[in-house]
Amino acid sequence: MGTTLNGSAAVASPASRGRRRSKRSPLTRGQNLFGWIFVSPALAVLVIFLVLPIILALYISFTDWSGITSPFSHLVHWVGFQNYRTILTEPGLGQSNFGTAVRNNFYYVITVVPIQTALSLWLAILVNNKFLKGKGLFRTAFYFPSVTSSIAITTVFIFLFSTTGVVNRILGFFGINGPNWLYDQNGVITTILAALGVHNAPSWSNFQVLGVSLWGWLSGPSFGMCVIIILAIWTTSGTFMLFFLAALQNVSEEVEEASEIDGASPWQRFRHVTLPMLRPVVILVATLGFIGTWQVFDQSYLTGPNNPTMVTPAFLAYQVSFSDFAFGEGAAIAFILFAFIVLLTLLQRKFVREDLTK
Amino acid sequence: MSGRNYTSPHRRLIAYGLLIFFALLYIAPFFLQVANSFKTDPDATANGLSLVPHPPTVSAWNEIFGISSTGVTDFPRWLFNSALVALLITLGRVFLDSLAGYALARLDFRGRRLVFGLVIATLAVPGVVLLIPRFLMLKELGLFNTYPGMILPICVDATGIFMMRQFFLQVPPALEEAARIDGAGVFTTWWRVVLPIVRPAIITLTILSFQSAWNEFAFFEVATISPKYYTLTTGLADLVAGGLGSANQYPLKLGAALLTTIPVAILFFMFQRYLVRGRLEGSLKQ
Asked: What dotted CATH number matches B75-285?
């Protein structure tokens, strides 16, 4: 975990590679002291409200704490791996709820991350075009959904996707009878298969993983989940567009003009000048995307109680803790999610590093 | 994906067409939101797509501004709480994240790799892993259900530190070296030389920090229990999730959601011109 995110660390300072230098130049004198002065306030907050709580949460995930007494009281019992077994290995509601939540979120991640990364880069490049008039207007339009609180915008989407709502009205113009979006638990793939005449799950697909049958795993996102997927792409692409725009502004105009004079085509200029310079930002956006999309909470808070196919592991952890008062089990879910995200991040960083050193 | 400059009339036309289509797609829900907040509940439920309220009414807005409160909601109070908490969190983040980001980018102190590793590791920590333990930590520290308890835990964020570090890395070291050779100390160099160069980044961080603090929901949900600490987000969530009130109440919910959106939108409109062009290039030309 102590590894660096990407190649930018290598860019940082070749000097840091041999950081035990025998003699210090006047430039680096005092850096030890000031370095610590500069980081300690931020570090203190991160340690007290992040690192220590995580250690406490880990402890809680091995107990039956109900959230009422002090977690260190004698009424709280050490239960070993029981909470983890309830979620992962023992057939039952705890397991199938968790499996369903993972399935739900999986489809969310594999649709949202690639689309939002590509869309935000594409929007940034369109908006950054120097021949474009009224670019401020367009940039504002694209960024606007991002500034909205997720609670506020989910409220709007709940309205838009209601049964007699705006989206179904528009679909109606095309003769399409829209689904009951937010309450519809049917998977998109299952629905397409049904339309093709495949109604029953083949027998091989009754095999269960995490309390969910293979047929359930292959069902695709539910129509309800599609609402959150559309919402996520629509809201986050504006934020990430800003990241790309900020970077594009640092791609010096001179460089672009020079390559223009060299007779490079627009595509060549993008491929060989702009994109390589944007590479660190592409990596940043994709990384933030992968980390963020496994943490869907607010949207699930508002819709999940009515539709189990919209419950994410993040919300399930909360629900189990604060509604069912099974804080131990909730903490265990959060930790499994935590471990999974860390694993994903490490894999991605490894991939990114190999990509950079090739 | 395309990086073309639309120099030929055809290409420019296509670009404009695409831009206008997407812009409408991004903006339409807000027009519908505004229109429906002036409708009656049955009208909003049945004719959501219409931009003309029939009949128009301000009853939702009367409740939002506390003119005809049903006693269930207290929007003025929620607004005050949101503003107070978001301002203080933003102040903390901008200052502390830039300090730490600079140290991690440029100051060669012992343990830097360890601290940077911690920041990077922190980036990977899912927010909800922290919901339960932060709730516990606030209770143990006696900060549960207080304003400091809502502010302190999130007045620094790893994303901001990482972002600032990336921006500081892009500043040519030559400028700092010149300042240092002229005898400026570390803090002076940072404050007088480096920060002005990364001003666009600071503005970006300010906007992003305010936005995320104003929009924060999950953490406030577990950090407080009394309605007097409701922010616009936790209050609205309670209204939508069904804890407060009854029926569809679409106009009220949409109006409240709009109220939650407006302050951040104004901030963005005010500051967006600063985002246009970094000052990095300018400072190198001199």
From this structure: 1.10.3720.10
- For every residue of A128-171, DSSP letters joined together read H-TT-TTHHHHHHHHHHHHHS-HHHHHHHHHHHTSTTSHHHHHH
> The pTM is what?
0.83
Distance from CA of A194 to the nearest CA of B (A): 31
Strands (E), B202-278: none
Pinpoint the residues of chain B covered by CATH 1.10.3720.10. 75-285
Determine the pLDDT at residue B10: 80
Rounded distance, CA B173 to CA A16, Å? 14
Contact: B124, A342; criterion CB under 8 Å: yes
Interface test with B, best of A37, A68, A151 (most B CBs within 10 A): A151
Determine whether the interchain pair A153/B104 forms a contact, defined as Cβ–Cβ distance below 8 Å. Answer: no
Between chains, do B241 and A302 touch, taking CB under 8 Å as contact?
A: yes
| Nearest CA among A280, A256, A252 for reference residue A268 | A256
SS3 B48: coil
Q: SS3 of A90, please?
A: coil
Within 8 A of B105 by CB-CB distance, chain A residues are 12
B194: Cβ contacts below 8 Å, ≥ 6 apart: B102, B106, B168, B171, B175, B176
- Write down how long chain B is: 286
Per-residue pLDDT, A232: 95
User: In chain A, which residues have their Cβ closer than 8 Å to the Cβ of B123?
Assistant: 5, 291, 345
Choose among B15, B48, B24: nearest CA to B254.
B48
Question: Residue A344 pairs with which residues in a beta bridge?
Answer: none
The pLDDT value given to residue B245: 55
Q: What is the DSSP string of B93-155?
A: HHHHHHHHHHHHHH---TTHHHHHHHHHHHHTS-HHHHHHHHHHHHHHTT-TTSHHHHHGGGS
In B, which residues are within 8 Å of A28 by CB distance? Answer: 108
Share the mean pLDDT of chain A.
Answer: 83
From residue A104, alpha-carbon distances to A189, A198, A233, A311 in Å are 13, 22, 16, 7
pLDDT category of residue B280 using cuts at 50, 70 and 90: very low
Span of A86-90, B239-243, B250-254, B271-275 with lowest mean pLDDT:
B271-275
Instruction: State residue A252's pLDDT score.
Output: 64
Kindly report the CATH number that applies to the domain delimited by A87-338. Answer: 1.10.3720.10
Residue B30, pLDDT > 50, answer yes
Q: Which amino acid is at B145?
A: N
ipTM, 2 decimals? 0.83
The answer to whether B246 and B197 are in contact (CB under 8 A) is no
How many other CB atoms sit within 10 Å of the CB of residue B258? 22
Q: Are A69 and A75 in contact (CB under 8 A)?
A: yes
Provide the shortest C-alpha distance from residue B40 to chain A (in Å).
14
Task: Tell me: pLDDT of A160 over 60.
Answer: yes
| Those residues with Cβ within 8 angstroms of residue B6's Cβ, 6 or more apart along the chain or in another chain | A129, A131, A132, B12, B14, B15
The pLDDT value given to residue B277:
38
- Contact (Cβ atoms closer than 8 angstroms) between residue A76 and residue B140: no
- Neighbour-count burial of A149, counting CB atoms closer than 10 A to its CB (0-12 exposed, 13-18 middle, 19+ buried): buried
